[in-house]
Amino acid sequence: MAPLLSIEGLSISYGGIQALKEVSVHLDEGEIITVLGANGAGKSTLLQAISGLVPIEKGTVTLNGEALNRVPAYEIVRKGISLSPEGRRVFPTLTVEENLNLGAYTQRDKKAEVAEAKRRVRQLFPILKERSSQLAGTLSGGEQQMLAIGRALMSAPKVLLLDEPSLGLAPILVKQIFDITAEINGQGTTILLVEQNAQKALRIASRGYVLETGRIVASGPTSELKADRKIQEAYLGGSALKKKAS
Length: 246
Hints:
Blueprint: E1 5-14, E2 17-27, E3 32-36, H1 43-50, E4 58-63, E5 66-67, H2 73-79, E6 81-84, H3 96-103, H4 111-124, H5 126-130, H6 141-153, E7 159-163, H7 171-186, E8 190-194, H8 198-204, E9 207-212, E10 215-221, H9 222-227, H10 229-235, H11 240-245
Parallel strand pairs: 3-8, 3-9, 6-7, 7-8
Antiparallel strand pairs: 1-2, 1-4, 4-5, 9-10
Helix pairs in contact: 3-6
């Protein structure tokens, strides 16, 4: 069976700097896949390229076999890919409700579907219902992250792209965000997760890719990645994972 989302030989440059070099990643329907890497490795660029936010120099992005290279970003959302960006990027002067409504912009003519998407978001994040009339800029960091993910879910995506969802959050909120990510996946949404918290990402994902300076240097089932000594040393605090398991 063909992958739901396929990225083949993707290369992207900013000026004279090559951010991605022939990167290939695929997601099957229903998976959580994680992409690990240090700051500047190209992780966010990968998600932005899939979302149509940066021009593709070489390679292809396909969803259900349909090429997306020249498709505008809003049409990519309409076709089933939605991004929750790094840094949340909620609209601070709009209410929680207004932020969610903007997430459904491409679906605004489908009232029943939008109402169902909002019901689902409020079920996943009850605090957003409580805060519906509050300005997004006055929310806590964790609440803003929930709003960013909720806004991305308002278009009922086939594929949800999550860019550093745990960044800057307290440990208890990090656990909550990862638990909800797994729940979203359990409801049928395929997820591509970019995350610096490698231990937690590898726990909920089935497969992973490691990016270094724009290239994929390792990939495979998360059990293999966790057992790889180089990946342990670079991303998992040496042999900390093995010690914890023993």
